[in-house]
Amino acid sequence: MTPLQKLVILELICLAFGHVKTVKRNVTIGKCCALDEILTYEQKCIKSYNSSWDLKVYSNGSFVSFAGKLPPRWVVKEHLRPRCAKPVVEALENRRFVPSITGTAMIVEYDQKITPSQYCIDYNYVLFCPNNYSPEGYTSVLVKKCCGENAVYSEQNSTCVHFKNSSYNIDVGPNKTLGFGFPICGGSSFTVAGKLNQAHLLDNGSVLINS
Q: Which range marks the domain in which residue 122 is found?
């Protein structure tokens, strides 16, 4: 993750959580599998005796690393998964799922704050139920805006800048959800592919750019 991505994510998290107070009560957090198992991308549990926790948890305006352990007030319950037809699986290393010290979590791409009952964590992956999922599962196509709400990407400054204008609106159309976050790719820089007003958004979320 580049410094720019880290900064943007931290800004989004600060806006979503605000000031997180010290946890005074225990919080029950579901572990998707048993303690001696790991969750796979296919949402299956397999045995693993060498896995350990490596989480970055949001607390009071910054990220706190927990290596080999979890926050002290978190009580882990094995095999406790969220209840929805088709939970979304996300790799923890992508840092798009950000838990707070209170147990609530921010899903950066969906710009949603969810409760512990809506997710379970494991050593490598997290399963979560978005706030607007349907009984048939989450079928909406996610279209990402690089910068968060009230912000735009400045090509001159190579960063996100604050921009609040009621006339500025991105309409992704039906059956799509507008999320936030930069693409995940190698290297430390991105290339501006084109202008939004010169692009056409397809039903599957792909973009055609007129050059």
A: 3-128
